[in-house]
Amino acid sequence: MMSGLKILGWIINAILYLVVIALWISIPDELKLCLSITVVTLILTIVMVVLDRERLAVIYESSQFTNFAQAFTAGILLFGILGMLNYFAWKNPIQWDVTGNNTYTLTDQTIKIVKNAKEDMRFLVFAKRVEFNQIKTLTDLYFFEKNNIHREYIDVETRPDLVSSNNVLKSPTIIVEYQGRREHVTVLNELSITNAIKKLSLGKLPMIVFTTGHGEASLESEENEGISHLGGILKNSNYNVVQMNTATTKNIPQEAEALVIWGPRQGFRKDEVQRIDEWVAAGGNLIIAFDPDLNGEKFPELKNILLKRGIYVSNDLVVDRLKHVNGSNGTVPMVDRFNSTSPIVKEFRGPIFFPLVSSISKVKGELEGTFTTVVSSMPFPASWAEKSNAEVIEGKVVFTQGKDTPGPITLAATWEGQSSRVSVFGNSTFLINTYKKFGENFIFFSNALNWTIEQDVLISFNLPVVKQEPVFISKPQLGIIFYFSVIVAPLTMFGLAFMFYRRRAVL
To answer: What does pTM read for this prediction?
Structure first.
């Protein structure tokens, strides 16, 4: 009876060792589970050795065990040497990319930027577990060039606490950490990651100036109508965010990368407008957002700055009957029509929404520059720009031929001159704290900010041209490949194995 229990104990112990190996291979991140099963298995082994010590003592004293111990020790030493070689190979990896267009090789620009970053770097990867392997393939390319990049993978489905504490707005996201600063990467490709590393390598934080004193949304207000959530995102993205009242400040700082006028409610004085216009003309970058005002136009002088550059922001209301937020009667468009030629939305899919938005259009301006539509509504008859405030107030908006403007309507646009960039939005409230859970809105603004201040450091790479060299295989050739790989090769290997077995038996 006791002998049978001992045999059962050894069988269970052996099964537990197999389970331990499987756990460490399949789910190494679950440390508590893996360690607990490992400890239980080792304790059971010690218990079995104590209980079965008499039979084991006989085995220990046998010549077979002595030979086994010598072979086992030699094996441990061999695996130790191989482990050290593997560690050095892992710390100093080498790979050969044999693809015709260097698909699995970083560009020369990226390699230079990565190697110039001397200190340790960390990649925090927030994604679903099923996405880890695909993302690892990309991050491996950076690790091959810089072996002091430390990578940590966090499952967004099991660690929502870390997602919230790290201000992760979408999955997958890579947070690049370098020199105590962070940059969020939401578009997972080489260009986006390299831009983040380049930005973190710069010594000075870009200064972004937000105007105050005209009823703009407050970066400090945590109320629903404030934009403190946006302010937190900007600070976490390594921007030096400054608030300034242009009515009481004589000059806009020359070191400012951009001036942001976000949803003013009161008009600007002429001297303020003049200072802003002169600052932009001298090479300053401008980000500006207006909201529709049913009480009439309040910012004619401020909008003249845009008119000089061929941008007209109308005081109307864009209606989209096809794609809008439920219950909005079409006045809160849900937008997913992006201009893929714009760097701001080249890899952006949305959707985003604008709660009451004005139309933006291209006109003939005094200054030369390039006007680009970034976001637009659906084509007519789904959308149009409603010009009648009376219809809006009554809640009976209908398209009036000859008065309203048929869609598609531009909702956000950019202008690029010789020395300055301008980003214009027909709505500002899409970034208020009420909508802080709608991450796509904030990612869209961050992309626009990066473009405006030219922090999209690398617009493109000098990628090699992909050679189109298709391989055509005939049906007989496919048959040869199939039969050789499935039948001939296995039978040949089996035959060789059987032949060697018989030879050893004879000897």
So the answer is: 0.64
